[in-house]
Amino acid sequence: MLSLDNDFATAALFATNNKLTTPVFYPAENLPALFNVQGIPATFIFDETGKLIKRMEGGDDYDTAEYLKLFAN
């Protein structure tokens, strides 16, 4: 998870309180244009070569057969 909050500790606490198991990162510099989105949350999934294979603005249910298959590869 990439947090753009002004207070990184708040984002980390949110992840802990909501039992999120993904690591929380804060960017060291400005993000590339690809990550400029209007909707929060936004999801970007890259394959092992760095190719963007899914981009979605807004929430989604990640506990589905589609995502499990995607992450299993």
Rg calculated over all Cα atoms: 13 Å
Shape: globular
The total of beta strands comes to 2
Weakly predicted, low-confidence segments: none
How do the SSEs run, as a string of H and E? Answer: HEEH
| Gap from first CA to last CA | 20 Å
Q: Outline the biggest β-sheet.
A: 2 strands, antiparallel
Specify the structural class. Answer: alpha+beta
What would your notes on this structure say?
The protein has two helices and two strands, in the order αββα. The chain has 73 residues and is α+β, with helices and mostly antiparallel strands. The protein folds into two domains: 1-30, no CATH class; 37-73, no CATH class. It has a two-stranded antiparallel sheet. Strand 1 (42-46) and strand 2 form a beta hairpin. The chain is globular. The chain starts with 7 loop residues before the first helix and ends with a helix. The model has no long low-confidence stretch (mean pLDDT 87).
Quick tags:
about 25% helix; about 70 residues; alpha+beta; 2 helices; about 15% strand
At a glance:
This protein is α+β, with helices and mostly antiparallel strands. The chain has 2 domains: 1-30, no CATH class; 37-73, no CATH class. Helix content is 25%, strand content 15%.
SSE map:
Layout: H1 8-17, E1 42-46, E2 52-57, H2 65-72
Antiparallel strand pairs: 1-2
